[in-house]
Amino acid sequence: MQIEKPEFFPKELPIIVEDELFLYPFMITPIFISDEENLKALEVAIKNESMVLVVSSKDEYRLKRDFDAIYHAGVIGTIMRKVSLPDGRVKILFQGAYKGEILQTTSSSPLMAKVGILDAVLYSDDKIEALSNVLRQKVKTLSQMTHYFPPDLLRTIEDSVEPVRTSDLVLSSLRLTKNIAYDFFTQKNLETKFFDLIDYLNKEIEAHKLEKEIKTKVHSKIEKTNKEYFLKEQLKQIQKELGGENDREEEIAEYRKKLEAKKAFINADAYKEIKKQIDKFARLHPDSADSSVVQSYLDWVLEIPFEHTAKKRSSMSEVQKQLNLDHYALEKPKERIEEYFALRELLELRGLNNKVNNGVILCFAGPPGVGKTSLANSIATALKRELVRIALGGLEDVNELRGHRRTYVGAMPGRIVQGLIDAKQMNPVVVLDEIDKVAKSFKGDPTAVLLEILDPEQNNSFRDYYLNFNIDLSKIIFVATANDVSNIPAPLRDRMEFIFLSSYTPQEKFQIAKKYLIPQELKKHGLKPSEVKINDATLKLLISDYTRESGVRSLRRKIADILRKVAVAILTHKNSDDKILINNKNLEEYIDKKVYEIDEVDKKDYVGIVNGLAWTSVGGDMLKIEAIRIKGKGNLQITGQLGDVMKESAQIAFSVIKVLIDEKKLKIPSNLVYKTSKDDDSDQIYNKYNLHIHVPEGATPKDGPSAGITMATAIASILSDKKARSNLAMTGELTLSGKVLPIGGLKEKLIAAHKAKITKVLIPRKNYERDLKDIPKEVKDELEIVAVDTINDVLKEALI
Question: What are the positions of the active site (predicted)?
Fold first, then answer.
């Protein structure tokens, strides 16, 4: 096929559509043809020995063969060679000659059209020459930054004297989109074309300068951690090949799924914070330190059971039933708990539970082993809620409750949030055990956090530092326990209602052991009731002589000791079907030596020895206060490791007795008054003797004002040489005017007197009037309780 001269155009030519390339007239290009329309156009060209017009398809219409899918300008050229390929395609070698444009379509199958030559308009040679020089300079600058222009092409551009050819050579080397290439291709005004092309080259140069600058900065940064960076990249690729990357994607998808499941149950701030951390985790490299921190956070926070709450309504009757089932005695504590849940049930029935805040925090206070925690267990069982026990004894780090900030190594949520996760519900029963033993240190004051946790007005938006969003604790039933209420800070005490559990009487312990402890321990030790029996008398002996406590914890341990020995005996005598009977005779075979909690009183009366009653954190106790006189000058010595208050009580007692002696209300035997010198006319005995007061068990610290009347009685006894009744005990605070003031812990003290076989007890009038109703009937039946108003009343009853 011959290249026809331009003067033969316009002319009808077949059209071949190229999907990949944008051709220019000077190119000799291989073109692969596989579609039917292009093959038809090729056949027409070969048959008629005519030239063809090669045009590009529009990107959005690739492989489509109609005039709407193609650009209406292309290259007119000849087919130099045609080769049929084994895969059915045809390869032609096309040589471009002129730029052509479609003037009029003549056939749609194959594509044929009347084609004309696309010429440049007239232009100024001088101006084009200047523009060509600028263009060549820009090309040279760009070639130093990129690989767009091979050396041979650069020389061709330098040597070219045809402006149109020069611009086409440059355009053919640039990486242009088809639309931009077509705009340049069809531009007939050569000056405008050169200006646009130079402007485009300027943009490319600036872009490559910026790219080079960024690469330089990145390269310098990579060099600092070059080895680590490339190793991590290699590891990332290895993980990807092994499927590790997929595992991470699955992990992130699982986190998002869990969050969406909880979305309806959490507030907007919580959702936003968790989502932010998931997005951050997705961006982080798996081996970065932050990745493990964020993953640990997500593992914690997505385990919080926002969507789970116990649905059972509060039921006073069920709580009452469970309390009676699990506990003997404790009538007042059980009554107050029933009132608490009666109020909750009434509010729920009337739909006011969300409008009226009745968030009273119950605190069970009393000695160890009296059933404080087990009451909370019964509440949880009755309500069918999980029980979470948080031991506060010795807690001094505020972050243990508030949660650690995630900037710290080993950070984790606070104990409250951890308790919710363990309980798997948002409204469990939470027992704050030993709230009176919270410690204050340089790490903060945990009681300040407890104020927020237990305040019904604040705990609906408690902020845990680890979570970094507010969480609602108002649905939780909080129950606190304490041994000594006085150790709880006043603001915290103000937020709680105290239910006091006092010591058990021996009879109550006996019933608890029979109904609860022995059946429970038999079950724990795998024993049957038919295999072992503990006599009632032996059980009472175990209570009176082998345990030292206010509750029954020690008693439970003693029963367990016996049953372990029983288990050994059963295994040793496998063939014996006899029931093992534990009685007073063989008890020592199963248990160690006796522990005498309170010595029984002496039957003999002594001068200067008086029985006092004391309250301790483990119940009541009886104190023998001893006094002796030594010839001297009226000094008072006090021993027994007494606290300041008790020492002051001794000084007050001594002064009160001096007044009674001066007023002749306490008679002093004449044989005790002696002359210290020839000039001594004084008959004041307290100036002639030094007194020594001692409270036995000197290793045990003792304090409190309630031994005032006991000390006064001991001083009066030794100075008047009158015996004090050994079957009588007393408790009461003494004033300088001789009045007897009320004291606390009366129930524990009277139980201690009962255990010590005391028959008569002196107590302050106020306590007699208001507290006797709380004393167990068996104690009141066996004690003669006398109310006293002054020290005269006390001495009248105590001294013989």
Answer: 706, 749
Element (H, E) at 638: strand 636-639
Alpha carbon distance 2, 765 (integer Å): 138
| pLDDT reported for residue 378 | 92
Segment 265-286 shows an average pLDDT of 91
Residue 677 above 70 pLDDT? no
Q: Is residue 369 part of an annotated ligand binding site?
A: yes
Contact indicator for 313, 345 with CB cutoff of 8 Å:
yes
Q: Which helix (H) or strand (E) holds 17?
A: strand 11-18
Under the banding of pLDDT at 50, 70 and 90, the label for residue 539 is very high
What is the identity of the amino acid at 211?
A: E
Check the annotation: does 616 bind a ligand.
no
First CA to last CA distance, the chain: 152
710 marked as binding residue: no
pLDDT category of residue 94 using cuts at 50, 70 and 90: very high
Q: Is the pLDDT of residue 659 over 90?
A: yes
Q: Is 367 annotated as a binding residue?
A: yes
Peptide bond before residue 25 is cis, with ω within 30 degrees of 0: no
**617 pLDDT more than 80:** no
Catalytic residue, chosen from 99, 334, 747, 749, is 749
Residue 773 DSSP code: G
Q: Is 368 annotated as a binding residue?
A: yes
Distances from the Cα of 265 to the Cαs of 258, 388, 462, in angstroms? 12, 22, 16
User: For residues 631 and 691, what is the distance between their CA atoms, to the nearest angstrom?
Assistant: 9
Q: What is the pLDDT of residue 577?
A: 67
Angle between helices 268-283 and 244-262 (to 10 degrees): 170
What pLDDT score does 596 carry? 58
* Pair 372, 479: CB distance under 8 Å: no
pLDDT, tens digit, 9 for 90 and up, residues 155-198: 888 888 788 888 888 888 888 888 888 988 888 888 888 899 99
- 593 Cβ neighbours under 8 A, 6+ residues apart: none
Catalytic residue at 706? yes
Cβ atoms < 10 Å from Cβ of 370: 28
Instruction: Calculate what percentage of the chain has a pLDDT beyond 70.
Output: 91
Query: How many CA within 13 A on the CB side of residue 710?
Result: 29
Phi-psi region of 351 (alpha: psi -120 to 50; beta: other; left: phi over 0): left
Cα dihedral value 573, 518, 616, 336, nearest 10: 170
Residue carrying the six token digits 């014996």: 576
Count other Cβ atoms within 10 Å, centred on residue 169: 19
**Which whole-number Å values give the CA distances from 371 to 329, 485, 501, 555, 724, in the listed order?**
11, 16, 8, 13, 38
Q: What average pLDDT does this structure show over 355-366?
A: 73
Torsion of CA 86, 88, 90, 91, to 10 degrees: -40
Is 370 annotated as a binding-site member?
A: yes
| pLDDT interval class at 573 (50, 70, 90) | confident
The residue count of the chain comes to: 800
Catalytic residue (choose from 706, 717, 720, 726): 706
Task: Classify 415 in phi/psi space as left (phi over 0), alpha (psi -120 to 50) or beta.
Answer: alpha
In the block, residue with structure tokens 């084994």: 86
**Rounded CA gap, 302 and 261, in Å?**
10
Q: Sort 366 into a burial class: Cβ within 10 Å, 0-12 / 13-18 / 19+.
A: buried
Q: Look up residue 526 and give its DSSP letter.
A: T
Residue 486 has pLDDT above 70, yes or no: yes
Other Cβ atoms less than 10 A from the Cβ of 646: the count is 22
Nearest to 70, CA basis, from 86, 56, 82, 83: 56
Q: Is 371 annotated as a binding residue?
A: yes
pLDDT digits (tens, 9 = 90+) for 2-54: 666 677 888 899 999 998 888 888 888 999 998 888 899 999 999 988 999 99
C-alpha–C-alpha distance, residues 249 and 260, integer Å: 17
What pLDDT is recorded for position 275? 94
Residue 506 annotated in ligand binding = no
Kindly give the interhelix angle for 163-173 and 125-143, rounded to the nearest 10 degrees.
20
